Q: What sequence folds into this?
């Protein structure tokens, strides 16, 4: 935890002079998504508030916002914890992803498309694979899908999916073999990127739909084994 807090203190500059609960929640959301605070972690008001240099009231409001987003949970007389998802949560996340991501691809206009962000995410995934950094590969994979959603050019859609992807990352953190989970999808990301480069959005949508179905099946299998249906750790 000391290392995470030291790193979190580096984010203090992001708050500027107009520190708000929303900006604190943005920082904490990003840190949760990047794995600095794994599921089940108790978040200390004193430690985090001190690292960010914000008041207790501001931090509590940020916690409230993230609880509303289902990233945190408040337990009476125990404190605030990073949420441990259930299998039902994972299934709902993938339903949302399929609805939004496939709709974004389906609604793309005429090519060419702005694909630099997708290409960068694929390149990041290739570097992570070459370095056997499977956590980084998972991050690159999420970035690929964020960039895919960003093709819609909708700030509202980006905001909705930002929380969905942060929740997804909570599920990734309990997986015992991240290489097996993430590595097969790098090639699929390349296929989707190539289909979009070719201007074939129909093929890209078909690839994406199958991708998400397969990913859901694998994720639920792994998650049920590791955590159980109700979010209680299986050890």
A:
């Amino acid at each position: 935890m000391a290392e995470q807090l030291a790193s979190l203190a580096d984010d203090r500059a992001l708050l500027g002079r107009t520190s708000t609960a929303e900006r604190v929640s943005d920082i904490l959301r990003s840190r949760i998504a990047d794995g600095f605070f794994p599921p089940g972690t108790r978040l200390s008001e004193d430690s985090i508030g001190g690292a960010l240099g914000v008041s207790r009231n501001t931090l509590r409001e940020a916690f409230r916002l993230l609880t509303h987003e289902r990233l945190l949970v408040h337990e009476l007389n125990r404190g605030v914890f990073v949420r441990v998802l259930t299998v039902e949560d994972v299934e709902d996340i993938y339903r949302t992803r399929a609805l939004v991501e496939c709709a974004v691809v389906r609604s793309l206009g005429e090519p060419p498309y702005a694909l630099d962000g997708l290409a960068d995410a694929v390149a990041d995934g290739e570097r992570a694979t070459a370095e056997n950094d499977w956590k980084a590969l998972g991050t690159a994979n999420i970035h690929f899908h964020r960039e895919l959603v960003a093709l819609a050019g909708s700030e509202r859609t980006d905001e909705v999916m930002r929380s969905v992807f942060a929740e997804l990352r909570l599920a990734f953190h309990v997986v015992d073999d991240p290489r097996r989970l993430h590595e097969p999808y790098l090639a699929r990301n390349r296929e989707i990127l190539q289909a979009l480069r070719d201007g074939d959005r129909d093929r890209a949508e078909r690839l994406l739909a199958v991708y998400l179905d397969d990913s859901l099946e694998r994720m639920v299998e792994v998650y049920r084994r590791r955590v159980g249906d109700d979010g209680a750790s299986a050890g």
